[in-house]
Known about the structure:
With 330 residues, the chain is mainly α. The protein has helices at residues 2-25, 29-41, 50-65, 71-77, 79-87, 91-107, 116-141, 166-174, 180-192, 195-212, 226-234, 256-267, 278-293, 309-329, and strands at 146-149, 161-164, 236-239, 272-275. The strands form two sheets. The protein has a two-stranded antiparallel sheet. α1 crosses α2 (29-41) and α10 packs parallel to α12 (256-267). The longest helix is centred in the middle third of the chain and has 26 residues, at 116-141. The radius of gyration is 31 Å and the shape is elongated.
Amino acid sequence: MARTTTLHALRGAYAQEARDIAQTHGRSLKWTRVQLLMGQNLRDRRRINSWNAFIRAKLREAATEVIVSNSRNLLAQNKDDLLVAYKNLTPAQQEAYNAEVQVARDTKVVIACSNPKAVSHTVSAAFANMDREWTALCAQTGLEGFYIAVRGTVEDLSEPKVFFTQKAENFVRTVLDIEPRRLALCLESWVVSGLASASALIQEELDYLLMKKKVSTNVKMNYTNYEHQIVERYGVMLTGWPFSGAVRNPSKIGGQAEVEKLLDALNSETCKWVRLTDEELRARVIHNKERQARGETVYQPHRTRTIKASTTHVRTSSVCSATSADSNSD
């Protein structure tokens, strides 16, 4: 419980810091998050090479004595001497050169630039490598599956990245009745519109509040029967809903402008989950029943389970066959 609370507090602090940076510098929240995580998630630093560290130090020494216009000419003119000097280095001296490079890397300030093309190029290179690895893995082990990756906002220029094995592709076409490429485009539309972020924020805050109430079950947000399954059952409600009418699924509130309005309300906590007192909950239940009595659809009826006609027919024919077999045996 303490670990979960600590992690949630850290996530909240990170989200608030990202919002402050985005507001201060006039950038979107998505762009700010990408820049904060760029160095860790998208770029792999090369291992430090002792030879390169040695040459770097020698170039720095030469630059203090003379103005070096072309480092390649300097290396070409002194290659033999540099090789001899490098071979005479002790392991401790090599480690010292490596340590200098590591310190320079750690102290270097990475300038965040709005360069969507560079991000797109990095993403494409990463997924090209993933495609080769997945293809080799599937060929060696016989695994079947697929993955889909899409851009997070309209500011990104990355195209959808997909990988399907043959059986996985047949599954999507036959069972889901959709082309794999179209499935990727549907996911991209869902993510870029902000619907995924809004739904995730609502669910995440609901989980946190129910955790504080010591609700052990995993509760999924119910937009269809929100009053009965969420408010009355768990004693919590979503306040500050920025639209007229009842709380509803973010996919049904309108277009891009409405989704952004909901996201702003959730991020600024003008729309948030609150815990109802016993008196507030009783008053809410009475009010909901009064609305239902006036003809408003507050409580959605449960779906009735129907038995397919084909199943009944099979069972009947089976019974008839069994009866005929019994009569013949008599």
